[in-house]
Amino acid sequence: MAGQDDKTMDNTIDQLKESVESLLTAGAIGGSVGATWGICLATFRSQPLGFYAASLGTTFALASISYMTFFDVLKRNRGGSKDDVSTYILPGIITGGGMLSFTRIPIRAVQGSIAGGIIGFGAYFADKKFQSWRHTKSLERYEAKHGIAPEPTMQLNGRVESTSTPSIQGDRLRFDIPDLLPAFVKISDDEIESRIQKRLEELRLESQK
Known about the structure:
6 helices; 2 domains; 5 strands; about 5% strand; three-stranded antiparallel beta sheet; mainly alpha
């Protein structure tokens, strides 16, 4: 029982770290985009750069953090799945409508909700396209490294199941490509090889239990 409680606590801490990291990343990216946009507008309008950059940077950062907060809540309520398009759209509707509701003009809040929903809808398809592209590139690198054609059954939830990799006691091996190639990080072939071998060793030990 104590071991199970410790495992639950570790999972909770890991989820909390992941949430904080995603919020900070979203805020940093949103703030950078907003500040850049503010500088462009200020230059075009011959206005003070600092004010526009700070104003739009803060607004975009808050909007990004708000969106990721609701996105994370919805994702966890659905078991970590991001396959439902509403997981992307609803945070956009809530964030867009909520932020423009401060103007106290109802039509602005409605417009913000619509705009946020459209942005969320676009983010859904952009994310799926990116995940599909990343899976394809990962498998190409794996095949080039090992000379094995994985012939995978690819799913957009991040899991790749290979039908031609070596088997352990009749069960097909599975490995998680996103764990091998995290987003926005370029990993060397040696590091990929090391992680693959580590995962294969874990599977071998599990099969002996």
